[in-house]
Amino acid sequence: MGVGTFHRSSLQAAWLCCLLAAQVHSCPDACTKCSQNNQCEECRAGWMLHNNTCVDVDECDTELGVCPANSYCFNTDGSFQCRDCDSACAGCMGSGPARCRKCASGYTLTGSKCLDIDECSDRVLACHGLDEICTNTEGSFRCDCAEGFIHKDGVCVKKQQPSSPEKGLFEDIQDDEVEVLQQMLFGVVLCALATLAAKGDLVYTSVFMGAVAAMAGYWLSDRGDRLLDSFLKGK
Questions:
Q1: Residue 106 near residue 116 (C-beta atoms within 8 A)
Q2: 194 neighbors 211 (Cβ within 8 angstroms)
Q3: What is the pTM of this model?
Q4: In terms of pLDDT, which residue wins out, 100 or 234?
Q5: Cα–Cα distance measured from residue 127 to residue 120, given in angstroms and rounded to the nearest whole number
C-alpha cells in the first residue's frame, strides 16, 4: 500500500468517525438542550418534555388553539392552523359538510351532512315572474329571463324586434306578374274604348282600332321573338 493510498483511507475514516459522532451526540430538532447521552432536557415552543422526549402539543385540545368564527383548528407539528369551514357550514368542528355545527343558509341537514337546498324544485315558486326561469346554485338560486325576454327595471320584458321599413305595394312583384298586370290593364282599356266606339263616336272608334292594332303588333312581335329564340337554341 502506498503512502498516498494510506492517507486517503485515513482521511475517509476520520470523516466517517466525525459523522457518526455528530449523529450520536446530535440533539433532536424539537429539543433546545440535550444531555451528553443524547437525552432531551428542554423542548422548543409547541412541544413538551415527556420521559426525556419532546412530544408535540395538540393546541386544538387546549385553549391555545383559538380560531375565528367559521373556521376550525388543525394541529401541526409544534403548532396549529386555522382552516376555513366548508361552505355548507355555519361553524364547524373539522373539514367537510359532515363536520358542521350548524348548516349555512341555503343548506339543510340530510343524514349527517349539510347539503344544498334545490330551491327550484320546491313547492313554492322561487321566481315569481311568469317569464322567469329558476336556476339552482350552490347554497342559493337565481332567476333568469326566459328566451325572448330581457331584464329591465327588475322585471323580464319581451325583446323589441328591430323595426324594418315598410315595403311598397308593388315592391315584391315579379316580372311575369308585371306582364300579366299590363295585359289586364290593356284589356280593360280596350273594353272601355270598345264600349265608347259602339256608340258611334268616330274619335273613340279610331282610338280603339289603333289600340287593337298596337296590341296585335306587340303580340306578333313577341311571338316572332320567341320563335326566333327557339330556332336559334335548337340549332
A1: yes
A2: no
A3: 0.51
A4: 100
A5: 8
